[in-house]
Predict the structure of ABC transporter domain-containing protein.
Amino acid sequence: MSKEILKVENVGMRFNLMEKKVDNFKEYVIKFIKNELRYQEFWALKDVSFTVNKGDRLGILGLNGAGKSTLLKIIAGVLKASEGNLTVKGKIVPLLELGAGFDRQYTGVENIYLYGAVLGYPKELIKEKFNEIVEFSELGDFIHVPVKNYSSGMKARLGFSIATVMEPEILILDEVLSVGDAKFRKKSEKRILEMFDKGITVLFVSHSIEQVRRICNRAIILDKGTLVADGPVEEICKLYEEKFIGYKLQY
Ligand SMILES: Nc1ncnc2c1ncn2[C@@H]1O[C@H](COP(=O)(O)OP(=O)(O)OP(=O)(O)O)[C@@H](O)[C@H]1O
């Protein structure tokens, strides 16, 4: 019998958007004191419900601004939902904005420990996996250089190497298979595919429908913050191509 690992129930996310533009912090403070700040409510997600079973590889489709990243951030615990419930039964590793958690002043070596701690890995475990992380990142001597001197691809490579060295139960991938150069992309996709063989659960956001078809067994569609379809990957991708993109892609 399939085991439920994630349950999203009636989740909603409200952002408060400033009605008028505030140019600087001083103006913000003055308006705040005078109680002149006016906000407009914006629901990025509304009443979203679905469940994910262990071993499911769920693709999340939707046009720009549909709410995909917001949903993943809520599941990862980066954002707190304004309403609804979330039940997670397993260790999550979110690959959202790779390297976003790095401290620019510190070297790659120092950031391995820092970022590892952010992901909840014990220090001993990071020590044990240290060489493997450095080797996979292919940064060579740059591992001793402050991260502020890295290119964006180098940061993403180090972030990916740290986050995937341990095996999580749920892996969240937000457009991360498109980072780095072609060689690293191939290598990172191989590492992810190896994790799949071990029955890992995956939540996957990509604008590449071809990649969703290749990686996922199930998919959902978000449209302006609402879940509008949920089913087997082929059926949902076809629906998305017809109803949202307006034509069938060649792949
Ligand atoms: N911190 C925030 N404050 C206000 N609005 C936000 C915030 N974060 C996201 N939004 C809004 O929520 C909506 C959903 O954004 P989200 O990034 O989840 O979309 P997405 O489906 O991931 O889009 P894309 O495909 O372009 O990455 C957008 O309209 C966005 O402007």
Summary: The helical segments are 25-33, 68-76, 108-118, 123-137, 152-163, 182-197, 209-215, 233-245. The chain has a mean pLDDT of 87. Residues 15, 17, 44, 62, 64-70 surround adenosine-5'-triphosphate (CB under 6 Å). The radius of gyration is 20 Å.
